[in-house]
């Protein structure tokens, strides 16, 4: 036999061996896989005689493929297999109810059950839908409530029973918007989730109810859940976080949950004479008033205050009973005066607003709420370098006035002076008053190294006047407006004015903090305060720098 013949035979034997092993693997895999047909299959090891993997799949082949990778004793119940159509026309309540009954029966046998609403047009229901505890939901098409009763439409879970079910793609809409004035007790709820614990919950949409979404602990806790929020629109209360006693008078609680996202909005023309609220933390019966440590990340509130009538208000956040709850990166747009309202013993709640105002209506018994904005977080980087109490530094001899450690700058120009004899400036009752077109008072700062500053004034906002900054180069030469050597802030920028010999002046009469920085060619600046379009009445002003900076400050006169 030639060498080529021997090698050919060996190669054929190796290929036959590989093909044989591959065929054996395929046969074993086929024997191990459960049936994925939509017919009913055995639901327990006693019925099938098997002791391995148990799976029930109803209908949808996509769900079947997903379920094939589920854990032991898992079951997918497809509502379509029980009579629901999902065509957006037929009332699917009977079919959905039958599917829920099947899911409950399997759950009671110890199965891990998921109720599937497959990807169809929409499922319409004339009656409320109640899914018991520990039945997960995979919703891939909207649920539409076509009834008129003021009841919770989709209820997940039950009182006194902890549920660890997973809820995905929850999407509900009431076909006709609730008249909020006729549902004073807020019974028309889109999605009500009871006693979830360590669950993953994704709410895609809740629209046209009195309450869009309610999470509630009844007789036990709603806690440790990861909740993703989508469009929560045209509800009088977008999200209600609450608790109450069960029938045995055992109280519930609602703590330690993470809520992410949420587009809380009310469309124009909807219940325009009625108030609306984004998130409310409260208790139904007063049994537990310390709902705490719930964290809300990046909720967006657009409740449409501008389209309301009369006394209707739009408040993004209301905490009636709650403590240590956190709201981060809040968007507060087209709402009312207040970003949040606090009542009763609510305290130590934290609010960080990344867009819009951050004003609180704090009616609580305590004052320790925490409020920050992107702007306030920026200002927090700066610490006080020098404080000038104008009234305490004020001295007047005959007609000449002076301020210890400070200097005056005439609006007609010239260099700063230690004294002045203008009648337009005076001191009384702890404040120095500047008339319009008067002098400025301030001090010189060495900015050869330190370039960033914040100026604050102790004054009523409309009487805070203006901040002016005069710049000098390395040779002590006065800088003109060319070169844009100073930057300010967007909400109170600076412009170059020819008065005071040429200075950058803040744009508005106000007492809010003012930031500015200067370019490298600027080596010293004279910074002061003066009147703007109206008079200024100022007690003091302060120069703030970053915590590691400490520039030289002197009178300059």
Automatic annotation (TrEMBL):
<dbReference type="InterPro" id="IPR012334">
    <property type="entry name" value="Pectin_lyas_fold"/>
</dbReference>
<dbReference type="InterPro" id="IPR011050">
    <property type="entry name" value="Pectin_lyase_fold/virulence"/>
</dbReference>
<protein>
    <recommendedName>
        <fullName>Pectate lyase superfamily protein</fullName>
    </recommendedName>
</protein>
